[in-house]
Amino acid sequence: MVMPRKGSRLITVDGTAYRWRVRHKPTRGRGDTWSPLSFTAERAEEPGGVLVVSLPCARPDNSFGERTITVRPVLVGGCIRRAVEEGWNPGQPGASFSLTVTEDELTVLLGEPPQYMIPFLWGMIPEGGGIADLPRCTQIWSRDTSQP
Length: 148
Known about the structure:
There is one protein chain. The protein starts with 8 loop residues before the first strand and ends in a 9-residue tail after the last strand. By secondary structure, it is an alpha+beta fold. The chain has helices at 73-85, 103-110, and strands spanning 9-13, 16-22, 36-43, 51-58, 97-100, 117-120, 123-126, 138-139. It has 2 domains: 9-114, no CATH class; 116-148, no CATH class.
């Protein structure tokens, strides 16, 4: 499995450069079932095995109103370290290495409790928020109906 370069970001973890990316579109092959937010990572130079990380929350564009988080570099770096500890060899070609992050592990990997967001109408509201939080929303879909 080779990770596409388009849309990937660079991160250096313990002196090694990696590329990582969140899939741009959700997988629809399984019908309308919920699928977790996930991202992939591989070494930037001489890539070998690909790391596939599955998080305990939904994608931001989920249609079920499930909570989500922003995948930040601190989380990516923590997941890469955890995967290496669990046996991922990023320089060895072969099948992808899967890492499933639990709810409890998120806090450890982030160094703080996760800040969940919930899709609401055309944007995101912080978990536990309400109508008063709308000015702080982050727009995730264009309101321009002329685009597909």
